[in-house]
Design goal:
It is a single chain. The protein is mainly α and 692 residues long. Helices cover 72% and strands 1% of the residues. The chain is elongated, with a radius of gyration of 38 Å.
Length: 692
């Protein structure tokens, strides 16, 4: 029986969020209606207290309003404080009743002087019976103090706030979680409401003094490593637990306290951030998170620099630290760089290589950590790597440029980070390393030929000795493909030339041809005519002499790069005439090129015609055969209307002989032709006739 009653009491205490309607209905009557059938002793005491307060109001002919109930309850509390002996049960019920009434009192209905006196009474009452009170009642008393301070006391007079603020600060490190959280929430609201510089200074000094009191304990705890998953409440003595909780208070207060003390406190907080996980780590990270989420714009450089130093130090030991804290540190590091970029962009550049190095080291961690690191790295590359600015800095080389904040120096160092990672790989790196490398290449564009050539050479080395699975190989090919897009085929083939190996009469770097076929865009028709075709013919001649079918296949594959070079080429107006003459020879001499020729011509027509025709709806499917898979947005940016007009004129003016050769070829093939070939041919024929 006793156990059952104790269970009821506990459940009643846990259900301490009492909602009372603020209207015409008497508060006492609402409580009676709500708890009439409850057998919990706590509810019975609460209803009895409410009835006693109503009796006082009736005896004095006062209305049953929240202000009147508040005055009666505070008077009763004051009498209790002054009595030699108190009943903890009665005090608990009185505090709970006050926690219900005070939020219902309209603004201005309690004078600042009466509110100050009420806070004094409540602090005395709680301090006297603190250890005898239940969690719900104690939490209700703390909530009352906070509500009175915020809503009714003079926020411009520190003497009106001093006692209550100190009490909230005390309970903000209480061992009981509900009490502790309530006090911290009240402190945050009060600090966020302060306007007077004098009061802010006093409140700041009070918070900082509380932090300083626990500094020796905090210093000891920061150097004590604990195992992941340890519970703070179970592994700490009372004083140590309070020291940990004071960091939560500091985290709440930091955005609002005076700039001088904030800088000092934050510096000391960052110094407590050890490179390995401690009992303080999560509290410190939370404080940093709150700081960034709520801080005003005037964050100082030393504050941000301290955060970056602490976070990078922690990430450098990521393999020894809990993954959730590593993820949180990664997110905070991004926020820190964003803040630093706003106040000191040169220093931000100086920090980039260090940050990139630590984040890149996370790409081989578990999935959650690595995924978060990848997202942050992508974001940092997009925000801080700017090829236009870097190009302006190209004459300046050397590591000293990093210290000076020059973009080229920082970018070179970032590239060196990924070069180092790839150099340490004996096999194909994981997908995330390749993805972020590809993004960096893409961001640097043509400049990647200067800054990332060693990375491309390493990728090629991994490709030639590839031992990974098909998925890994696909990601490696995509990364190299990004280099093809960024640098263009001319630069890529300078770095990775396709040639005949004299030793075994094989074709070096032939693995690159399928990648070129897929990723070439915006290349030069002239380069295809002057370099690719002669190279193909040279390899073909060697294959005939050496009777090597693999060389012949390589030659054909090179020549069949024609459609790739016709994917938004940059020199249609200048070189299509020469290409048309070459294609006439191809039609007559190389039958294997027939489909490649029709696809290439169709692509040239479609890509230029699309710029001149009315725009289709976003959801409308492309119906023209032979269209490439270049995104609509990219195609919009490739050609201007003026360029497309010139290109169409060039296609039309040089098409007569080519069109006749196509007709002869088509009629000569008879039934030995695919349906796609027929469709492409007919489309080309109609378009060329249209423009002639």
């Amino acid at each position: 029986m006793a156990a059952a009653e104790a269970g009821q009491q506990k459940r009643a205490e846990e259900n301490d969020e009492l909602t009372i309607k603020d209207g015409d209905t008497d508060i006492c009557q609402q409580l009676m209606d709500r708890y009439a059938k409850s057998s919990a002793a706590q509810h019975g005491h609460l209803v009895a207290t409410a009835a006693a307060m109503r009796s006082i109001l009736v005896a004095e002919s006062l209305p049953s309003t929240p202000p009147a109930y508040f005055a009666a309850a505070i008077s009763s509390a004051d009498s209790t404080v002054n009595s030699p002996a108190t009943d903890p049960v009665a005090v608990s019920a009185l505090l709970t009743f006050l926690s219900i009434v005070v939020p219902l009192v309209p603004s201005g209905e309690i004078s600042t002087e009466k509110a100050r006196e009420a806070v004094t009474v409540l602090v005395s009452l709680i301090d006297r019976d603190e250890e005898k009170l239940g969690v719900a009642s104690l939490r209700g008393g703390v909530k009352c103090i906070g509500t009175l301070l915020i809503g009714f006391c003079n926020l411009d007079d520190w003497e009106s706030l001093d006692l209550g603020f100190a009490s909230l600060l005390k309970f903000a490190v209480d061992k009981r979680p509900k009490v502790r959280r309530c006090a911290q929430e009240c402190l945050e609201k009060i600090l966020g409401s302060l306007q007077s510089s004098t009061v802010i200074k006093e409140a700041s000094n009070t918070v900082y003094a509380s932090f300083k009191e626990y500094k020796p304990v905090l210093a000891e705890l920061s150097s004590s490593r604990i195992d992941e998953g340890s519970k703070v409440d179970l592994s700490l003595k009372t004083q140590n637990a309070e020291a940990v909780y004071v960091l939560n208070v500091l985290g709440v207060a930091i955005p609002f306290i005076s700039s001088k003390l904030r800088s000092r406190a934050f510096s000391e907080l960052c110094n407590l951030m050890a490179s390995q996980f401690s009992l303080l780590t999560r509290q410190i990270l939370k404080a940093m998170e709150v700081f960034f989420a709520n801080s005003r714009d005037e964050i100082s450089v030393p504050e941000i620099e301290s955060i970056i130093t602490s976070l990078t130090g922690y990430l450098s030991s990521h393999d020894k630290n809990p993954s959730d804290t590593v993820v949180q540190a990664t997110i905070l590091l991004r926020s820190a760089l964003e803040k630093l970029h706003l106040v000191d962009s040169k220093l931000c550049l100086k920090k980039l290589p260090l940050v990139f190095g630590d984040l890149a080291g996370l790409l081989t961690s578990n999935d959650d950590t690595a995924s978060q690191a990848l997202d942050v790295l992508k974001d940092l590359i997009n925000r801080h790597v700017d090829k236009d600015i870097v190009e302006g800095c190209l004459p300046f080389e050397g590591e000293e440029n990093v210290a000076d904040g020059n973009k080229i120096g920082a970018t070179k160092s970032v590239c060196a980070v990924f070069e180092s990672i790839l150099d340490s790989c004996d096999a194909i790196p994981n997908e995330r390393i390749l993805d972020v490398t590809a993004i960096l290449i893409d961001k640097l564009g043509e400049l990647s030929y200067v800054l990332m050539r060693n990375i491309v050479l390493k990728l090629a080395s991994l490709m030639t000795s590839a031992t990974g699975d098909a998925c890994s190989l696909k990601h490696l090919q995509h990364c190299i493909g990004s280099a093809v897009v960024a640098m263009g085929p001319e630069k890529i083939l300078e770095l990775l030339p396709i040639s005949i190996c004299a030793d075994n009469r094989s074709c070096t770097n032939s693995w690159l041809i399928p990648i070129l076929k897929r990723y070439i865009v915006g290349a030069s028709l002239g380069y295809y005519i002057e370099h690719i075709v002669p190279l193909s013919k040279s390899i073909l001649q060697t294959s005939r002499k050496a009777h090597r079918k693999k060389l012949q296949a390589c030659s054909h594959e090179l020549m069949e790069l024609l459609p790739a070079f016709c994917n938004y080429p940059v020199d249609v107006a200048q070189n299509f005439g020469s290409l048309a003459k070459l294609l006439v020879k191809f039609i007559n001499k190389y039958p294997f090129m027939n489909e490649a020729i029709t696809l290439s011509l169709q692509r040239l027509v479609n890509q230029n015609k699309s710029k001149l025709r009315p725009k289709i709806n976003p959801g409308e499917a492309k119906t023209c055969p032979g269209e490439d898979n270049t995104s609509e947005l990219e195609s919009e940016n490739r050609y201007s209307k003026k360029t497309s007009t010139k290109n169409i004129k060039a296609l039309a003016s040089c098409s007569a002989e080519l069109l006749q050769s196509l007709v002869d070829m088509f009629t000569g093939l008879g039934t030995e032709v695919s349906s796609d070939f027929k469709v492409n041919f007919l489309h080309i024929f109609c378009n060329f006739k249209l423009y002639n």
